[in-house]
Write a structure and sequence with these properties.
Strand content: 15-25%
Number of domains: 2
CATH superfamily of the largest domain: Response regulator
Radius of gyration: 19 Å
Number of helices: 5
Number of strands: 8
Strand order of the largest sheet: 5-4-6-7-8
CATH class of the largest domain: Alpha Beta
CATH topology of the largest domain: Rossmann fold
CATH architecture of the largest domain: 3-Layer(aba) Sandwich
Order of helices and strands: EHEEHEHEHEHEE
Length: 180
């Protein structure tokens, strides 16, 4: 069997080899839109990370959020955003993605949130934060410590496997803002 991470560019080639030689290919991630083997046989590629864009959609619908703000940090986050857009049905959908921003660090996220505060201080803001655990923690803590940002008008949805990591219970900032 083959085991390892591959770039999206080389995934199709390794996926084809895997199916042709009936050799399992285990990878931490691969694109959701994977073509089924043309031979009609089994697909030998296995992803260890679940796709969770549908969980994001279901959570947003469950809470009844009408508009979301999507902050992401990587190509994977952009792909998830694309999957969310592809899953939405025009004219029928209960929510829309209002704003999107790619962030490199927590300070970029906070700067973007400041610009939102300038536009509409008292409106509710539902932020999907699609980034690594450490960056998500830093965004939340920095937001809570920033006296110019509202606390009650924000609700964060942390996407991915962020909550699998240990969040320090002694950091009181995590209890000062809505986090799902």
């Amino acid at each position: 069997s083959m085991l390892g991470a591959v770039s999206p560019d080389s995934f199709d080639t390794l996926h084809s080899y895997s199916n042709t030689f009936q050799m399992p290919f285990v990878t931490p991630w691969f694109p959701e839109k994977v073509l089924a083997p043309s031979s009609g046989f089994l697909d030998y590629a296995i992803s260890m990370r679940p796709d969770y864009h549908q969980a994001i959609i279901d959570t947003v619908r469950y809470y009844g959020w009408m508009r979301i703000i999507y902050l992401y940090d990587s190509h994977d986050g952009l792909l998830r955003l694309q999957q969310i857009y592809q899953s939405l049905k025009p004219g029928v959908e209960t929510f829309q993605v209002e704003m999107v921003k790619r962030i490199q660090n927590a300070s970029e996220a906070i700067d973007f949130l400041h610009s939102l505060e300038d536009i509409s201080r008292w409106s509710n803001k539902y932020v999907v934060l699609d980034c690594p655990t450490e960056m998500a923690k830093e965004v939340v803590v920095t937001h809570v410590r920033d006296i110019t940002l509202g606390k009650r008008t924000y609700h964060y949805l942390l996407s991915g496997l962020i909550m699998d990591d240990r969040w320090e219970s002694e950091v009181i900032e995590y209890g000062a803002i809505n986090i799902t």
